[in-house]
Amino acid sequence: MDEELDPDQDNVNCVLDQESSELLDILTSQSPAVIMKLCQMMPSGGAWGPISHGSLSSVSAEHSVAEHSRALLDYFRTADAAECRSFLQSVCMLCTDIPMWLESRLMSVSGFPTNDTVSSPNVTEDQSASSPSAEEQLIKRPRIDYWERYVAAVQSLLLRRWEQIREHLVMDVQIENVWVRPRTTNRGRDRPDKTPGPDKTPGPADRGSRTPEADVDYGTESKVTLETFLQGCTGNITVLCGLAGSGKTLLMSCLGQQWARKLGPIPSSYLFVLLEFRQLNLLSRPMSLSELLLQHYLPPEGSLEEKNAIVEYLLSNPERICWVLDGYDEFHSKISRKAVQRDREQLDPRTPVPVADLISGLLHHQILPGCTVVVTCRGRDVMDLEGLADKEGHLMEWSSHEIQQYVDRYFSRKGHSGCGIQAAELLLSNRHLRSMSSTPALCNICCICLDHLLQGLRDEERRGETRGAAGGGGGSHTQTGDGEERRRTSGGVTMDGRNGRAHLPPIVPQIPSTLTQVYLTVLGAFLSRSPDKGAGGTRGITQSSALTQYRSELCELSQLAWKGLDQSRILFLEKDVPRNILEFSVKTGLFSKVELRQEDGAVVNAYCFIHLTVQEFLAALRIMTSSEVSDAHLKKRFSLRTRWTTKLDQRTVFTDSLYLYVCGLASPNCTSVLVQLTKGEQLQRTTSWVHKRQELIRKLLKQLCQNTSLTGPKVLELCHCVQESQDIQLAKEVVLTRRVLELRNIRLSPSDIDAVAFAVNSVNDKDIGLDFGACSMELECLDVLPRCRTIHLLSFHSRKYDDKFAEKVSSVLPRITSLRKLEFCGANLTATGAATLASALQNCPNITEINLSDNNLKDEGIKHMTDIFTKLPQIISVKLGRNNTSLKAVDYLIGKISSCLNIQHIHANGNKETTVTFSQTSDMNSLLNQKWSQSEMQKVAKSLAHCPALSVLDLSGGQWDIKTLRTLTQFIPRFNITDKIIVNDSCSSVEALVSLTALLCKCPAVTELHIRADLILSIVKDVVEPVPKQIHHSCNYPRVLSRVNEWFSAKTCPSHWITVLSCVFFSVSNNTISLEGAAALAGALCSHDNLTQVHIRYSVLVDCAVQVDHLPALRTIIQKCPFLTDLDLSHNMLGEEGAEFVCSVLPSLPNLTSLSVGSKEHSGTVVEKLSEAFVRSPSVQLTLTYESVSSSLSHCVWSSSGGLQLLKTLGHCVLLSFLSSKCVFLCFYSKSGLCGCCGLSFRLEGWRMAEKGVEQLAMATPLWTDLRHISLSKNLIDDQSGVTVLEALRSCTGLEELHLSSNSLGDLTAASMALVLPSLTNLSVIDISENHIGNEGSVHLSKAITCMKKLTKINLTSVGTSELCAVAASLENCPLIQDVGLGWNNCGDNVALELARILPFCEKMIRLDLECNSVSPEGAEVLVRALRSCPTMHIIRLWKNKICPTEAERLSLWDRRVSFSST
């Protein structure tokens, strides 16, 4: 209990002065009546006028209250002790909303009521009457006294507990030296108001806090001391996580003793309640919070009145208690995540409820709102507390320095300080011991193990010395340079002559190579502590002998360990353990003792294994040596640990390493140990049983190795298990089924990378990739990476990877000799990091691809990377996009072309994408969306002028003004471009467009000028020899349209256009020009004998017939172009007059080879007229369209004569290659006329053709031996008719495409496909979507697909069955497959898994459609992983599957080729 202050003048007035600011805030918030009553205690109290209640809300009234309050404090600061004590007593009695820490202090300093107030000469009788009576003052004082007495008792309890713990500690615990990695928590709810405590206004009790709270951002990788982390935790819920054995319980006990000594971050005025969940498990009956505190934690010694007073004080001051709940991972119940509302219902602390509900109430602030709660647990249990914690931190593992300190201290206490250095070196050099030692408890076990091994060496040395002394050899003496004498013993230990310190011996103990064997050695070390059993004891005997000697005890212990894990138990009462086993375990150190308080308050002893991993290892021994654990039970329980924690995961806190040890015991190296520990009458039978159990484990591991749906954390755990088993074949299975090991959002240690290296190195002739995404890792992990000898891809992508990380990566890159691809994208890399990477990459001669996109390299970083281009002989691609660069970086890249001749293509799209590809010859530059000014264009153009020969230069998207564009045109003649320059969407005006066309005259090398939609411009150059020039002009911008129309309607055009005498092709399609304009243009061009093609498409003659008076002029112009080969009059709505016009001009065009005509009339008259002319010009390729649809000869209702005329025409067309007759209703005679056509591709879609039509078609089909394409979609073909069609197609051996969608095909047709399609060896496209094929039909279809080696596209959308696994599997035999449609079939994960399996074999796959199926996130994730081996894949569509938006977004981030949209 705090020492009560003496009520003398100095103390009481000093306290009032210290707390005057806090008291002023309290007084100014009181009612005027309270202030006036306090003012009457002053001698001049009556002089203060009353404060009017009516003016209470006014500013003057508030000011008056403040004035009165200041006057009170000013007076009593200097008043005598009696008056000051009376005033403070009155304040505590009359005022409200006083923080309890302040009230407690004021009551303590003011003391009990006395008659001083009455006897004071300055206090009148009326003033004395207004002071609080003694009875009123005695109401609060007992509660505070009882509370402080109980606090003092708890302090004594925690100090005694700490002294007991401290006896067994190797090193002192200091929370200011313990590091925590804080995490920001996302709380989606309001917290109750908390009364500010001493953490806001520190009192004397809080001055022991040595580390101020750091103003840091608690990010993922930041770290603070535990003391700093806990500061400010008052009134909040704080969660502290750590590995098993990381010292959470020890630290909470240390925190308690610091509180008891008025030190540390927890205010000493609080009540510190330390509860362990392992003890709460013993409380089975409902219990109230008061019972939990006053019966289970620490019963007070006083009466019931005292207990009630403590409870009352606690209920009225909930902010004065700190609950420390230790070891939530051991709690048998889980905290229910309740929806916490702002007006949530409070629970009565006096009402008995289950213990789990009590804990939940504290965490949800339904009990004692505003109290402080600190919870410790292991990492995976944080999910149970999600949304509850205000602050969350993870205890950091020990560094190498901390481990070395502990080892030195351990051996110093043992009296072997000279061995401490050697032990530390041995420990840090072994990956398993180093990983174990990162937690204090396991570090202690490692020291015990090393002490055991070194003790064996010391014994051996002593025996050697004894033998040497007996032989008279002694030791050799040497004299050092400084006169120090040293003696070298026969055992090889150098002894210091002055102080006898032993130096490192030349012989070192052999450390096991696997973690399982390490624990076998640990077990032997603990057994060596056992007292003698028979002659000689255990010290000095081998591990094998010790295991044999204590086989019965180990069997009992392993059974107890397995039983505990099976029942989720860590603690064992004395009655649960046989007496001899209990004594044996305590003496060997395998057991540690703890005290438990039962429900009735009695304290009993309980025992637990020295560490959870020891219990797991012994349980693993039980599994591998006892037939009581059946094979079926083992198969059911065998699983891999995951480091991802989700709300849906079932907690398996006691089996983190169990099956890792089981896999290690399956190694042949452990067979002899297992045989020794297995009970059996015959050695041969026992050995056979052990071999069988080991083979079962390897079989289970093999199944996991072949499972391609494992997540990254489980793949990592699988690598650990395979490494423990030391099975090279299993390691090969791991990496051969997943060529890229993806590790996401987990924390990695060097031992993890070592396990990956074991798997990777098992395949020397295969290339494996490592992809680290947002993984936190120690820099020591990167030192282990070079052990992976076959890595070809190394990928890091996370904002946490910065320049320091890149510097460490750079130090190991040259040692990874197999590396070909490096990705460091989406990170936090700057120019500094780029410089270090560039320096390292120069020493990587095999590097071919570098990706540094989405960083912050800026121009300087780009320069660092481009400077090494010439030093990378094998480089193929470098990606540098999204790096906050400017034009300077692009200009530097262009300048590199002249010095780096193997640059093939530079692609720079604004500030988005920047990619450089390399080959032996320069090819193409793409500088897209560069918003350059005139000066910038001049600078870039000068650089381009110095570049070697480029085939293509793409400068699209610039939207430059005319000055900038003219600057470009001035430099184009100086460019060494062999093919073309593309400046799409770069002309911002008609004037700019006209200036570009001037290139046809000024630059003889320009052969073509393409000006297409949206001012797309393509300048085609040829530097070899002049060729005929072409102009393509088809613009859409309104300003350009009006200008072009102006040119043509005025019968004029740019003068330099007419000077292009060699023009052979002129297109002004897609312009709003009138017929007069078109005629004027044609007239201007008709003098050019070289003109062979004129395209006038999409003109303004929409929905109107050509006027009769226009046709003669157009006829005259066309007749003047006898060399015309291509005439396109489509989309001009020609009627009968237009057809007659065409017929009249065809005879004058002997060289015409292509004619496109459009008509607006849906009648056969136009067709008949055109057909007659078409017969007279058999060499012409006809394209006849009807403008209401996009298909040719569509939606026409013909007469028999019209159809017959068309068919006769088609019969003369030996070059006709395609006929579309969509929705054309021909008479029977016309249909039969089709039989005379050969070499056709038929699209007979929507004919509503049924059985009779199919029969007629089947009669004609055998004659079409050269048929390439046939489409019978959207007809009425039933299952039997489908068989007829397929039988008729047997003779069409050249068939390439078969479309039968939207019919009524079924299993019979599918069975026929299995017989017919294998004979159609050229078939590449098949579409049978929207039919009714069943499960049996899908099997037949898969047989057909297996034989279709040229298949490139298959559409099975909505085929009537979800059982398409066989179909998916058959695609493995289609090496050319590119497009697969399986949408709307309700396919599940089985189909997705099968597709993922075969995707690596489909090397040309581009598109996979699985929309509207039943694929779950797990199935989708497997597909995403398979994409790593499918570089050609463009998209996998997964719209409308069983994937929530959150999962869809997560998967899309993994690979953008996965689409969840409807388009």
From TrEMBL:
Keywords: ATP-binding, Leucine-rich repeat, Nucleotide-binding, Repeat
Amino acid composition bias (Basic and acidic residues), ranges on this chain: 187-197
PANTHER family xref list: MHC CLASS II TRANSACTIVATOR (PTHR47189)
Residue segments, region Disordered: 117-136, 184-218, 464-507
InterPro entries in alphabetical order: Leu-rich_rpt, LRR_dom_sf, NACHT_NTPase, NLRP_HD2, P-loop_NTPase
The organism of origin for this protein: Sphaeramia orbicularis (orbiculate cardinalfish)
The NACHT domain, residue ranges: 236-378
Gene Ontology process terms (BP): positive regulation of MHC class I biosynthetic process; positive regulation of MHC class II biosynthetic process; positive regulation of transcription by RNA polymerase II
Name by which UniProt lists this protein: NACHT domain-containing protein
Keyword Glycoprotein carried by entry: no
Repeat recorded as keyword: yes
